[in-house]
Design a protein that fits this description.
about 290 residues, mainly alpha, 11 helices, disordered C terminus
Length: about 290
């Protein structure tokens, strides 16, 4: 088996591990107290007492490690396309396993997100390192991500779990952009500079906020739309960060530019389709 083929196999395995880990966390969190950022220690203690949640977390971490291994053997565009494809396969399987039947509208929304993520990955190159990052655009991007996530987290009613999934994805994507800046500093100025970088604090805070948002969304909503929206928001936000902060091209050709713009629009429309889907609140909704 060639290195490329092996990388793509790893991408499929990574997608399966990540998404099955999320589903197990969704089931396991039902046994835990309400996820609350104001009570972090109680939240972590409650989640860690759930064996299913711990198993899901372990499988998810393994999935991230396999994903990184896939990136070392295959181009970013192909790996992300296969991961997006895995998301599409996960949705109906997870819905059936959890007894959460997707409505026709939700099926259209999920399919739209999967197609859009695949299109966004077309023509992407492997991300390079950036030894110097302008503080102003990165600070503005991080602040915009925080404000967007905060606004989403204020949502109420049946839309709230979906909004929390989106908020978690925005913050995970924001953290990815900060981490990219940190890796650039480490490559150019050494590990010491990276450890003293203010972006390290930003990445840690964004990751923590993403965790609480996504876990609360999983705990109070139906797993499939929350997972799909989180994944879409993470991908879109990280790509936007590359464009705004690092000056990455939207596409190497005019055709790719148009294709990627259409993909961004499709993500937005698909998220809007998923947004108003009425889901019955779960046990922890009013906790």
């Amino acid at each position: 088996m060639s290195s490329l083929a092996f990388g793509l196999v790893l991408a499929v395995v990574a997608s399966a591990a990540l998404n099955s880990g999320y589903v197990l966390q969704h089931v396991g969190s039902a046994e835990a107290p309400a996820v609350d950022v104001r009570r972090p220690l109680a939240t972590f203690a409650g989640l860690f007492r759930s064996r299913l949640w711990l198993l899901g977390g372990a499988i998810g971490v393994t999935g991230w490690a396999i994903h990184d291994a896939a990136l070392s053997r295959a181009p970013l565009s192909l790996v992300q396309a296969f991961v997006a494809g895995g998301l599409g396969l996960m949705a109906p399987v997870a819905a059936r396993a959890l007894g959460e039947r997707l409505t026709p509208v939700e099926r259209v929304g999920v399919a739209g997100v999967v197609v859009a993520l695949g299109l966004l990955c077309v023509g992407l190159g492997n991300p390079g390192t950036h030894g110097h990052v302008d503080a102003a655009p990165l600070t503005a991007f991080l602040a915009a991500g925080a404000v967007c996530a905060a606004m989403l987290a204020r949502a109420s009613g049946p839309w709230r779990p979906h909004a929390l999934g989106l908020a978690g994805g925005v913050l995970y994507g924001t953290a990815d952009v900060a981490i990219k800046a940190i890796t650039g500093e480490a490559a150019s100025h050494g590990l010491g500079a990276a450890l003293l970088s203010p972006w390290l604090v930003a990445a840690a805070v964004a990751t923590l906020g993403a965790f609480f948002s996504f876990q609360r969304g999983l705990q109070t909503g139906h797993a499939v739309p929350v997972i799909v929206l989180m994944t879409a928001a993470t991908t879109v936000d990280s790509i936007l960060g590359g464009l705004v902060v690092f000056g990455d091209p939207l596409g190497a050709t005019h055709l790719l530019v148009v294709l990627h713009l259409l993909a961004f629009a499709l993500v937005a429309v698909s998220a809007a389709v998923l947004a108003p889907a009425v889901t019955a609140p779960l046990e922890h909704e009013h906790a």
